[in-house]
Amino acid sequence: MQAWLCENPTGVDALVWKDLPTPQPKAGEVLVEIKAASLNFPDLLIVQNKYQIKPPLPFVPGSEYAGVVAAVGEGVTNLKVGQHVACLSGTGGFATHTIAPAALCMPLPDAFPFVDAAAFIMIYATSHHALIDRAQLKAGETVLVLGAAGGVGTSAIQIAKAAGARVIAAASTDEKCELCKSIGADATINYTTHPAPNAFREAIKEATSGKGPDVIYDPVGGDFAEPAFRSIAWRGRYLVIGFTAGPIPSLPMNLPLLKGASLVGVFWGAFARNEPKANAAMMNELAQWYAQGKVKPVIDRTMPMAELKAAYAHMGSRGVKGKLVMVNPV
């Protein structure tokens, strides 16, 4: 097998494409022949030693992937050789093969392409858990999605629309705003031309007829968090997804008090570990939504696995719309 190996987590440049022995699965594990693997923000942080999970060195990055089961370990009864699966195991995806816990593998129907499957679990599980479970989103409510043209942002738009909500999408270019409209956003805010704090707040006020959004979905953080929270509706729910802008914002604690609003943390990985039955039910519903056409990953582009460093550079340029997916030769 071949894999991108991180022997020293000092950044993308330290990754090396290496030939490695193909491992055999142990009890409870499967060997997956990887067909596609998506690039997520945590994949950048983990090779910089900045992610909350720090795997033992050396490791193969790539948190999310899809492929074919090539071998099964002892005691694995829910999967068989030749079965198509998607998996989010945290590491191992940027390779031709990987060992995955069988319990983390999502069986795929034949009509679920590998590229879509590799871009599915992280963003849709995060957004469904955030909007449906944590925010208890109701039909007719208004959702403001920050970073709306990215992977989690595009999934949030689709899930909010599937729940019957009105969606305002905030993104950094007119092109990204048009993408958001094409997948269901009812209104958009270009926060480059409406910068935080004042112009951004005015744009939110105009888009909500002065009421403010009922739910704010924020994977960005940075300078947008406080003006967005100041714009929230009475009894609003502010979903803390992540901090792709870099700085972790500090909010004055009087703001939730004045708005009767909730600041809600969203950590899908911990939810999946602590509430496995609820997570399994959610993933089953999401698979059904995909089959029904309610959700479909937005794929910015596919690139050969060997061009991973160029893919990281493209993601770092903030030009990605939706998801970047690395593919192995057929």
UniProtKB/TrEMBL annotation:
PROSITE patterns in the record? QOR_ZETA_CRYSTAL
State the protein's name: NADPH:quinone oxidoreductase family protein
What residues does the Enoyl reductase (ER) domain cover?
11-326
Species, as recorded: Ramlibacter albus
GO molecular function, one example? zinc ion binding
Q: Identify the Gene3D superfamilies for this entry.
A: Medium-chain alcohol dehydrogenases, catalytic domain, NAD(P)-binding Rossmann-like Domain
The opening ranks of the lineage are:
Bacteria, Pseudomonadati, Pseudomonadota, Betaproteobacteria, Burkholderiales
Q: Which residues form a coiled coil?
A: none
